[in-house]
Amino acid sequence: AQSVSQHNHHVILSEAASLELGCNYSYGGTVNLFWYVQYPGQHLQLLLKYFSGDPLVKGIKGFEAEFIKSKFSFNLRKPSVQWSDTAEYFCAVNPSLTGNTPLVFGKGTRLSVIA
Amino acid sequence: NAGVTQTPKFRILKIGQSMTLQCTQDMNHNYMYWYRQDPGMGLKLIYYSVGAGITDKGEVPNGYNVSRSTTEDFPLRLELAAPSQTSVYFCASSLVLDTNYGYTFGSGTRLTVV
Lengths: 115, 114
Prior knowledge:
The structure holds 2 protein chains of 2 kinds. Chain A is 0% helix and 50% strand. Chain A has strands at 4-5, 10-14, 19-21, 24-25, 31-38, 45-50, 56-58, 64-68, 73-78, 87-95, 104-105, 109-114. In chain A, strands 2, 5, 6, 10, 11 and 12 form a 6-stranded mixed beta sheet that branches. Chain A has a 4-stranded antiparallel beta sheet with strand order 3-9-8-7, with no helix packed on it. In chain A, a hairpin with an 8-residue loop joins β10 and β11 (104-105).
């Protein structure tokens, strides 16, 4: 069965610090990869996605993620975080060649940005 | 365009009671999903549906039932509520055979079983 590992449970950063959240998955075939964000009290929203092409994908609000196939990784980055980035971030994966199988989510990483 | 609508937003149930969590979408998505979210555990799939009349179990289906009589609606039923079902429940939908756009999530139902 597929699994998604997010290495950091809780990350605390000061404003303007750089962010990198790790995500590794356990599926050996072609995959679609996603990062979702959940702001406090809200539902999940799509931050960015990768399904083919350039392995460096850019999403909303200055976030980007790099797909490294050899490492089974899809790490999320942002050069300079803001207080408003305080949220929980979820990595998700599903195979892209076997139909619309449901997404498998990681356990999430809580990001707290302090002034 | 409302997207995915879940009701109620909050509910407190007593052990043994039953209830239905409602989910409806107006995007003509064939695929719909129910996830539960517990602190530090991420989202776990309860049930999903690939179209009207078709449902399938996810990772944690015990204690729940679903039905899909129309494309728009995908209610989740708890027959005998237990404290272990205290959680936040999210409904989501997606296009047929196309997850390139990801899922559209509802705003969630926070359920407490006491």
